Amino acid sequence: MGILTSVAIYFVIWWTVLFIVLPIRMRSQADEGEVVLGTTHSAPARFSVARVAFHNTLLATAVFALFYLVTEVWGIGPGSFPHIVPGT
């Protein structure tokens, strides 16, 4: 796997993992009981971009390391699985 391919795969994994990390430990303004005038009650009460980015990067790096281990070290890929339709 080349460096550009690795960066592209990591980029896709990072953005995919972001949707997993965003709702973790999210407390809405309604949960806190302090709804700011002009905002929706479901808006986050305290949101830290740095915290989300840090946790997302840690998890995305672990997922990428697992992906690299499976594909490059162990050599498991789509061609490793038996064909579902015989003769293809």
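Second entry:
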Amino acid sequence: MFLMTRSAKKKQQQAMEMRNQMQPGTGVRTIGGMYATVKEVGDDTVLLEVAPGVHAVYAKNAIGAVLEDEEYNRIVHGDTDSGTEGDVTSGGLPAVPDDASSLVGPDDAAGTAKPDLTKKTDADDAAPKDGKTDGEADAK
């Protein structure tokens, strides 16, 4: 029991030290997974720039990680230090395309097989099945 509380307290201390390292211009990730840049640090709050010109006030406890500049730029701006481009990023994760056109294979792009997305007419739905209609007393 003593070891469990000691390790939990140690983790809390490390998280507090990490949050105290925040300075204006530092890249952070919130516990909700949002990436932002620190603009101002208060006692219990932090002002984050979530997009150019868009600022939001967060509690310091909502900061999940303080990121190194290289990691923040790689994640947010897509910067790579190696300069190589391909289907896999330097982190081993597949690159996400900007649009869906690159997800379609060459056979699909030619339009050979398109699904029928037209709406069925009321006549198709009105045809009785097996000569029986809904609501008849002798229908089983």
